[in-house]
Amino acid sequence: MTTPSTSELSRPLMARLSTWLAAFWPAPVAVNAQERLRAVVGAVIGVLFAAVLSRLIVGTSSSLPWLVAPIGASAVLVFGVPASPLAQPWAVVGGNTVSALVGIACANWIGDPAVAGAVAVSLAIALMFSLRCLHPPGGAMALIAVLTHATAFHWAVFPALANSMLLVVAGIVYNSATGRRYPHVQVASRTPGDAATKSRFSSADIDVVLSRYNQVLDISRHDLENLLQETEMEAYRRQLGEIRCADIMSRELIAVEFGTSLQEAWALLRKHGVKALPVVDKLNRIVGIITLADFMRHANVDVHESFGERLREFVKRSTTMHSDKPEVVGQIMTRQVRVASADRHVVELMPLFSEGGHHHIPIIGEKNKLVGIITQSDFVKALHRRVEP
């Protein structure tokens, strides 16, 4: 039995040390020069706005400070990362003001500045968590209140609250003017089924993973979900390349018109073994689609009793002048049709087929005329050709 050498034993240790040291190296910031300049100019405008107005409010003869250092840190967030949950108006105003109050209380009640500073920062964090206004500069606000021995509680109103509110006002105006939403939506309202039509994962899946991660993320949950969905779509685009709807659509169209009889439409469905027929006008523009589900629903065949007989009676042409039942396609067709243009990337249809419940997507060309149709089978064949060796 051979004994491992010292060099062999040291390799795992060196690897762990190298990995540990690598964690200190920052990742590149994925923003271009234009966005960096936008943040820099915003910080100049925001801090200058808060400083000048605060100085005018307090006057030069007052002993009160007209600007406090944590506002500089707040400006980094408001103008550098305006989408961050830590940079939102309530986080800035609430976080700084609450932390100032905590710092003032600790400066009054705890004699040792070192102890008072430590307690103030920790209590400020606890309160910011509870009040949903976690803001990193708030810790500095609590600490500076202790170190400057700010024992008067009006210090929390001015300069802390006043500086923060002025900075937020500047942030709202500047960020909005430069194309950045501020305040930034943190919890987006959604209609039922939104997530299902966009991605293979749901909002509930994200909630489960975030609860398992159990750490504060410097990104809103809504932005995180959007980024994941866009990343998934980008991966599909890379895998499917430049395949467009025109490349895989069925061009041998079997279509009907508004006035086509139900009997004729049903016969076409059975003859060609399809589950849907596009409905077009005289100019070949799509006006609807008729599917097996439309026949079933209007024939009231949701029960198994007399299934075939009910369907035959429904599609049978009436011999009288007046009839209470539908007679033509236009009376039972689905009018709201999801269509796609011929030059659209196929990958964009994936959510419709995989999660949206669609089985047929009519394809339109110039002047919105029907030029083809893509079925789930067409889509699966395209995927198979792409991934086969």
Describe the structure concisely.
The chain is mainly α. The protein contains 15 helices and 6 strands. The protein has 3 domains: 33-177, no CATH class; 190-202 and 220-240, no CATH class; 246-387, CBS-domain (Roll), CATH 3.10.580.
User: H/E order of the elements?
Assistant: HHHHHHHHHHEHEEHHEHEEH
Total number of β-strand segments? Answer: 6
Radius of gyration: 33 Å
Mean pLDDT: 85
Major sheet, described briefly? 3 strands, mixed
Q: Give the CA-based shape.
A: elongated
The count of helical stretches stands at 15
Beta-strand content:
5-15%
State the share of residues found in helices, binned by percent. 40-55%
In the sheet with the most strands, the strands line up as 1-2-3
How many distinct domains? 3
